[in-house]
């Protein structure tokens, strides 16, 4: 498994740490592959009752690796079965509670992943952003359906069309984050909550979670539509220009 994804057991909780701090934990294909293995193991292993996901080095994640996006755009390799696409599908279908720990940057999938978590705890410096349109892309992980549903169309337009960044306080107000916790206590607090979820009667927990989500077929279908649009967008000239602009920042 990639050393950029650290997987450890903390009792009945499976802890997954995004560990590429020198790149703000930007996610590569290898990291998605490792995440997919971790999710599959957590689902199958009966002694795991909850998943805790966090980032190393004071950031959650700067989103998908933009160099990987550019490579996919250039080579046409952004396939229907990309590791990122598989991760998004596995996350939405994951059958046990997920608790997220958000410190610092949570960009792109760093924000949209939270839609699929049951509990989200954030440090005061958490910084959320869904910059898809700015990058010539479209939203993923069902966020173009879930953001309007959860926040209303008006707020969702600010976050997805204007791509406005938002902080921990706004994230709590709109219901993306449960609670803001001081950075030094954040992980321990989230782990306690994950342990609490893992310690509940398992059958009732999983059934309640399923009932709360309702019929997910419409979401899964919407995610596939997003992925089709995404694969088209990632190859577009406007996306390529945006990726190059980010990667060439040092030369400006
Ligand atoms: N893909 C590839 N590399 C990335 C990255 C990404 N998504 N995000 C950050 N990095 C790299 C930077 O290029 C930099 O590498 P370098 O040290 O070799 O130059 C390193 O990670 C640190 O990032 P830096 O930009 O210096 O940190 P910062 O604190 O000033 O800014 C961000 C952090 C997240 C605001 C900024 O890096 C950023 O905007 N990243 C892109 C986010 C994005 O658009 N993601 C795609 C979402 S769909």
Task: Please explain how this structure is put together.
This protein is an alpha/beta fold. 48% of the residues lie in helices and 15% in strands. It contains eleven helices and nine strands. The strands form two sheets. It has a six-stranded mixed sheet with strand order 1-2-3-4-6-9, with helices on both faces. A three-stranded mixed sheet has the order 5-7-8. α2 packs antiparallel against α11 (237-247), α5 crosses α6 and α5 packs across α10 (217-234). The longest helix is centred in the last third of the chain and has 18 residues, at 217-234. It is globular. The mean pLDDT is 96. Coenzyme A binds at residues 23-24, 26, 62-67, 105, 107-108, 131-132, 135, 246.
Layout of helices and strands, plus pairs?
Layout: E1 5-10, E2 13-18, H1 29-44, E3 50-55, H2 66-75, H3 83-93, E4 98-102, E5 105-107, H4 109-112, E6 119-122, E7 127-129, H5 143-151, H6 153-161, E8 166-167, H7 168-173, E9 179-180, H8 183-198, H9 202-213, H10 217-234, H11 237-247
The protein binds coenzyme A.
Evaluate the radius of gyration: 17 Å
Secondary structure: number of strands: 9
- Profile the largest sheet: 6 strands, mixed
List SSEs in N-to-C order. EEHEHHEEHEEHHEHEHHHH
What are the salient characteristics of this protein?
single chain, 252 residues, alpha/beta, 6-stranded mixed β-sheet, 3-stranded mixed β-sheet, 9 strands, binds coenzyme A
